[in-house]
Amino acid sequence: MNGNGVVRRADGAIEVNGALTFETVPQFFAGSGDWLDGGPEALTVDLKNVTRVDSAGVALMLEWRERARAAGRELRFANLPEQVRHIIRVSGLDSAFV
């Protein structure tokens, strides 16, 4: 792996590692069905180890949230990097991440 990836922690949370950018979004999207379509429990996606984010990464986060909803799951994001918060704020997406 090139430093970008997803790990399911013992507490059930999903830990995202590396860059969430235009270049890496396809890789993250391709593997997300494995953990998004699981059981009905709420799911936490921890972004504390995300090193870089662009608008494609934020779009992927919105897609994850929609896919989780479609599967009947609640999805929460933890430890949003300031870069993500900034993109959300300037894009007017605050309500999508409440």
From TrEMBL:
* SUPFAM superfamilies to which the protein is assigned, alphabetical: SpoIIaa-like
> Gene3D superfamilies in the record, alphabetically?
STAS domain
Task: Provide the transmembrane region boundaries.
Answer: none
**Pfam families (alphabetical):** STAS_2
Q: Which domain of life is it from?
A: Bacteria
Record InterPro entries: MlaB-like_STAS, MlaB_ABC_Transporter, STAS_dom, STAS_dom_sf
Residue span(s) of domain STAS: 14-98
Identify this protein by name. Answer: STAS domain-containing protein
